[in-house]
Structure formats: C-alpha cells, structure tokens
Amino acid sequence: MVPALVLALVVAQSPAAFVLLALPSAAQDAAVAIAEARTLIAADKPRDAIAKLQGIPDPSPEVRYLLGVAYYHADDYPHAIEQLSAIRTSLPEGSFERREATQVLGLSLYVSKRYPDAIPLLEETRAWAKDNLELGYILGQAYIQMRQPERAREALARTFGLAPESAAAHVVAAQLMLRMEMEPLAEVELKQAVEKDPRIPRAHYLLGQLALFRGKLDEAIGLSEKELTLNPSDAMAFHQLGDAYLRASKPDEAIAALQKSVWLNPYYSAPYILLGRLYMTKDQPATAEGMLRQAIQYDPNNRSAHYLLGQLLQRVGRTEEAKKEFAIAESLQPPGR
Questions:
Q1: What is the pTM of this model?
Q2: From 89, 90, 252, 257, which residue has the greatest number of CB atoms within 10 Å?
Q3: CATH topology of domain 267-337
C-alpha cells in the first residue's frame, strides 16, 4: 500500500471539462469513460477505473495517462510506470495532465525504489508545488537513499522551514537518516550540528543513541547526561540513560533514571519494561509485575512486556497465568520469525 503522505500528493481531479455534444460518437464514448474513470479513482475504486479505461479502443495519450494514474492508485507501480513513461512527454507542456503524469510517475518510481529516475521528476513537480510538504519529505528520503546528504538536508529544511546550513537542519536530517538506518550519514550530520551550536536540542541524545547501539556505554551515558543538562525534562533522554546504565550493570543508577522518565512521561511503555527487568533481577517480583502490567496497559501489543511477565509469573509459580502471557507473546511474533 502507498503511504498516506504519498497519496496526499496526487491531484484529486482534473479541471478539464468535456463538451460531449461537440464530439463524434466514438469520442463521446471515450470522454464519458474518462470522466467515469476519474470518478472511480476519486472514490478509491482504481481497479474499476482500470477496467473501464482498458475498454476504450485505440486509447489516446490522455486515456493512457489516466490509466497510469489508476494503476498507481491500485498499487500496481510497474504498470503505472509503463503507461506514464510512454506518454508523459506527449502531453501538452504546462497542462494539468502533464503535471499529474510527472508527479505520479515520480511517485511510482520512488515507491519502486528507483530513486535516480524518481528524483528529477519529483524536482520538476516541486517547481510548481513549492508549498507541498509531503513532496519535500519524500525528496529528502530519496536523496538520503542516494547518499546525497546536502540535497536531503536542503529538501527537509524547506519542509520544516529551516535554513539548510543551520544546526537544526542537520538534526532534522540526522533523525530521518537514523530512521532509515543510515547511521554513518546521521553521525556526520549530528557532529556538524554540535559544532555549529553546542546547545542544539536532541543532537547529543541522538549521538548517545548511536553510541548505545554500538555498545559504547560510557559514551552513551555521557551524551545522554549532556542532553539532560540542556533539557532536564526530556523523558526520552532519561529512558536512554537508564538503558545505558542497565547495560553497564549499574542497576541503582538505571532505576533512578528510568523512574524520572516515567514521572515525566507516564504513558510511554519502554521505561516500565526496563524497570520490570531490573526489579526481577533485584528479586522484587511484586514491583516487577506492577511495572510490566503498566507497560502492557499502555502498549497491549508489546511482545517483550508479555514475555517478561510470563517469565516472572512462571518464576513465582503462577503457571497458568504464565502460559497465557507466553501465548500472547507468541501471537505477537513477527511473521517469518
């Protein structure tokens, strides 16, 4: 399925009107079919639109372009690319149809991970859709995939209303790079952000996150603490600090940090899970159970919470309850695992 943010880019309907009475009979039939196909696409019935458009004999470029749009909405990107690539440049320059064909072809190529082909078309779309936030976000991701951090930062800076060379723009780009598992690119952006503004929010936290992933626990602790000197109410930084202390076998320090995280944001399940683990190791089963059940209350589909609770209940002899938690954890196992 296409993400909602991608669908939001597609123009909803054509401004063109069909003067049916002035057309020959075959052309009238085609015009009616095109108008009906547009209505079906807008009604989220793209496959019905495809069937209707495929029934038009000797299809014109306009029919093929709309067929490509329908394929895109039906998540059939290879056929969308095939149709739109063949006729896009034959559509009138500057027309609604040419613009939509360019936009949808760019998106189809992007979703198909053909980033070098998608980027020029998305950039062409940006020339007339300067204020489209989703487009800047998608371009940012495409440039990250192409290992072009400067272009990615520029696209994202426009989306977030930032100067491309600002410390904040580096942090925004890094955050997206981390989510896309581009850690080396993100690390460079974060270090540049700190060089430009040592007090920029989130940069030390994200650098600490990288250190934690790499098992550099002392570094993760130091960077998390640095973030907290800049923002002492950052619940996520306290959670990260507690996680680092737990891995460093410093349970008391971990509990203190995680408790602060819970006080600042009582609706986030992760600190409760870590606290449950810690209280299990400290042989405080009642407290551990309370923490794990709190985690499940806020995140019922958290597999780790159910599994740890099952282990705890098994340990204290509550076998039937443990089996129930293990069964829930098993049902939450990702497919293919």
A1: 0.83
A2: 257
A3: 1.25.40
